[in-house]
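ugh ok fine here u go
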Amino acid sequence: MKTKELAVYFLLAYLISWVIWSPYWLPSFGFNTHPILPYQHGIGGFGPMLSAFITTAIFGGRADVRKLWRSLTAWRPLSWLLIAILTPPALALLGGLVAWINDGQFPDFSRFGYSDEFPELGAAGFLVYNAVFFGFGEETGWRGFALPRLQGRYNALVSTIILSVFWAGWHIPIFTYRPGYVSMDFGGVAGWYFSILTGAVLLTWLFNGSRGSILACALFHGLIDVVFMSEYGNPGMMQYIGIAVTILGIALLFVFGRRNLAKGERVKALD
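structure:
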């Protein structure tokens, strides 16, 4: 495991994002400031990506930067892109089934993809927003840079658990200003971290199964964010989708095992 590279990477990822988000969280500490740019919260999602390219350039040079870029645009095998695109809506439907069993009523999917926070974007625009800022912005770093280096030393499950801790920690400033986060109690935070962990299991499976496609992971990440943030007319729907994600994550561990979390060998370096 390249410990020094990972240390620099995580430090830069946190630093870049937290500085961009500072106009949002600094007021919680008595500093009066305001966001400078539209969608500045989303722009902060580029921290992991920028850190990945900077750290790769420092330690690996141009050849490794090209490998990272190729993984970012790798659309083959096509089957894994389809899996990445279709799995999040399938999880939403499975969550809807859980809601129907528990509440006796199937959720309203007519506003799927729409956001009350960004009504001007529409469904397609909100998907692009999440895929670009949080899909590509995050996955280029978490899965594209950090995961292969962790998997070079640990098995896929241990690597996923370690990465999930750093991934969760990156979100810390958000708990000072995002409405859904500010109101969380200890139990809510614990449940949120568990959703991060189970989501990380799915992304490790997708990354290893696709032989290191950041593109597949970014599309999945953008879509799963939309799935969780859509309006369904059922306040418990986020929890039900979380149950669906957990069921799938456990099933993948059972089928593929903790060593590789995929049919083939886990990815230890980008091609």
